[in-house]
Amino acid sequence: MRNDTPSHYSGTTRFLHWAMSLLIILQFMKLGDRINDGEHWVGQNIVPWHISVGALIFVLALLRLWWALRQRPHRPQPEAMPALVRLGHNLLYACMLLLPITGICTMLGGGYGLTVFGINLVAETEVEIPWLAAIGNLHSYIAWTFVALVIGHIAAALFHHFVRRDRTLRRMLGS
């Protein structure tokens, strides 16, 4: 595995970024479940995978966090407002980790059990665990915060590309 350099991100970094981006877009489609009580194509075909994709994102987020910490000395550094850039990225990572954790709390706290990619990890008990369900109640709030952060992240990348005309977006695209 090649390391990041001050001028570009490695293939590993780019793969983790874009793979997780696609999975996160799938997760955002869960918002479509709120339309017509999920009685449409998205609600019937994508939403049932929400828990499994969330578990995959959690594993990839841990891997990505480990990789980012390992690459920290090599990475391109933000030119403008580095403290704000770090805060934004840290909040994105926090959401990528907290969303699956609170999702698991929702499932277990409600007694629903936990099945990931068809593998039953925790059996359904139908016994509610109030303190765990209370933590799970944060899931939706964190999800909406994450949506706002992702929109801000995309807007910042586009601002760098089209207004500042720097290499920020190109480094993540590999060009």
Automatic annotation (TrEMBL):
Stated family: Belongs to the cytochrome b561 family.
Chief location bin: membrane
Gene3D superfamilies on file: Transmembrane di-heme cytochromes, Chain C (1.20.950.20)
GO biological process: respiratory electron transport chain
GO MF: electron transfer activity; heme binding; metal ion binding
Compartment annotation: Cell membrane
Pfam families in UniProt: Ni_hydr_CYTB
Membrane disposition: Multi-pass membrane protein
Cofactor needs: heme b
Keywords from the UniProt entry: Cell membrane, Electron transport, Heme, Iron, Membrane, Metal-binding, Transmembrane, Transmembrane helix, Transport
Membrane-crossing segments per the record: 12-29, 49-69, 90-121, 141-163
Family annotation (InterPro entries): Cyt_b561_bac/Ni-Hgenase (IPR011577), Cytochrome_b561_oxidase (IPR052168), Di-haem_cyt_TM (IPR016174)
UniProt key word Ion transport: no
Gene Ontology CC, one term: plasma membrane
Designated name of the protein: Cytochrome B
Domain Cytochrome b561 bacterial/Ni-hydrogenase intervals: 8-174
